[in-house]
TrEMBL record:
This is Response regulator. PROSITE patterns: HTH_LUXR_2 (PS50043), RESPONSE_REGULATORY (PS50110). It comes from Amycolatopsis pigmentata. Residues 150-215 form the HTH luxR-type domain. Keywords: DNA-binding, Phosphoprotein, Transcription, Transcription regulation. The modification 4-aspartylphosphate is found at residue 55. Residues 4-122 form the Response regulatory domain. CDD domains: LuxR_C_like, REC_NarL-like.
Length: 224
């Protein structure tokens, strides 16, 4: 399967570097470039890529607003957003994860890691390892200016699903959840899917945010 990518960054050199990397690698196609968020949204609607690699800080419509528009559009439900940032602790990145981004990358990422990340996200998974993603969420969810989500979003799931959600927030894969709870991987996958459906999450990244903001998992808890 060819992974179709839109590159959104206001720096021509950054877009060019990513384009050269992807075009020399089998299995990838750059189907558009955007210099601002509005153009990224337009391209997402027009070409329906598998992944939009989205810089956060762009002139005009920034990457955060563009991410909200893409992830909030039912017609773009299959389009994933992978956020680019210069720093690994950035409030804008946290807000992008809340908005539905599937993960984030540092701009100085090694080429092999960028390719791996695109494959992970295009497959419908969230980029939650490295653990810095969970540290990022823990950093900002503890701040008083961040309103917690409606606790009803968590109350509607079963006790077993709460257990699964907490393990997802700890960064465990479906295989690791299955081992921890002594269930099959297929059952673990089903639990995760049901939780996502009940709380309206696009992927595991949003589940992690929900687990922290609902208070189900707290910064510094074992495994986080």
């Amino acid at each position: 399967m060819t992974i179709r990518v839109v590159l959104a960054d206001d720096q021509t050199l950054v877009r060019g570097g990513f384009r050269v990397l992807l075009e020399t690698e089998d299995g990838f196609e750059v189907c558009g470039e955007a210099a601002d968020g509005a153009e990224a949204v337009r391209l997402a609607q027009e070409v329906r890529p598998d992944v939009v690699v989205m810089d956060i800080r762009m002139p005009g419509t920034d990457g955060l607003e563009a991410t909200r528009r893409i992830t909030g559009d039912p017609n773009l439900a299959s389009v994933r957003v992978l956020v680019l940032t210069t720093f690994d602790v950035d409030e804008y990145v946290y807000e992008a994860l809340r908005a539905g981004a599937s993960g984030f990358l540092l701009k100085d990422i090694e080429p092999v890691e960028l390719l791996r990340a695109l494959r992970v996200v295009a497959a419908g998974e969230a980029l939650l390892a490295p653990t810095v993603t969970r540290r990022l969420i823990a950093e900002f969810v503890g701040r008083p200016e961040h309103r917690r989500v409606d606790a009803r979003a968590v109350r509607q799931i079963t006790d077993r699903e709460r257990e699964v959600l907490a393990l997802v927030a700890g960064g465990l894969s479906n295989d690791e959840i299955a081992e921890q709870l002594v269930i099959s991987t297929a059952t673990a996958r089903t639990h995760v899917s049901r939780v996502m459906t009940k709380v309206g999450a696009r992927d595991r990244a949003q589940l992690v945010v929900l687990a922290y903001e609902s208070g189900l998992v707290r910064p510094g808890s074992p495994g986080t």
